[in-house]
Amino acid sequence: MKVEDIMKILQDDMKVAVVSTVDEEGQPHARHINMGVANENGVFFMTSPKTDFYKQLKANPKVAITGFNEDGYLVQVIRITGEVRDLGKEGLEEVLKDNPYVEQVYPDESERQNVQVFHLYEGDGFYHSMSQGHKYVFEIGK
Fold first, then answer.
1. Which residues have a Cβ under 8 Å from the Cβ of 106 and sit 6 or more positions away?
2. Which structural domain, as residue segments, surrounds residue 12?
3. Residue 79's domain is classified under what CATH number?
4. Does the model's pTM come out above 0.70?
5. Least enclosed by CB within 10 Å: which of 7, 30, 44, 51?
C-alpha cells in the first residue's frame, strides 16, 4: 500500500483523529482533531493560538496521531509519530474547506480567521487493517 493511499484513508474515511502532545511539565495530552489535509507531504491541521494545544505544539513539536475507522467488517488504524511546524495562515483555506466541525468549534468568524495551520512534515507511520491482518509501515518527509 502506498503512502498516498494510507493518507487518503486518514483524510477521507477517518476524518477525525487523536493528536497527542506533552505540556511543559511532560504530562501527556490527547485531543480529537479534524484531519484537515492528509497526503504524501504529511498531515495539515489547525488550531487557535488561544489553546493549550497550540502552546504545546509550539513548545515541543513532537506529536503522535492515531486514526481509527470501522466500516462493517473492515477495521483500520493509522498511527503516525513525528514533528510539526507552524505554517501560520499558509494553506488555511484548504484545511478549513471540508471541516464539518469548524463552525461549532470556532463559532465566531473572526476567531476562525485567527487559527494557525500546523504541518506534520516528518514522521514514521503504521497502517493496520485489524480485521484483515494487513500491516504497512511508511515514512513522511524522510
1. 48, 112, 115
2. 3-140
3. 2.30.110.10
4. yes
5. 30
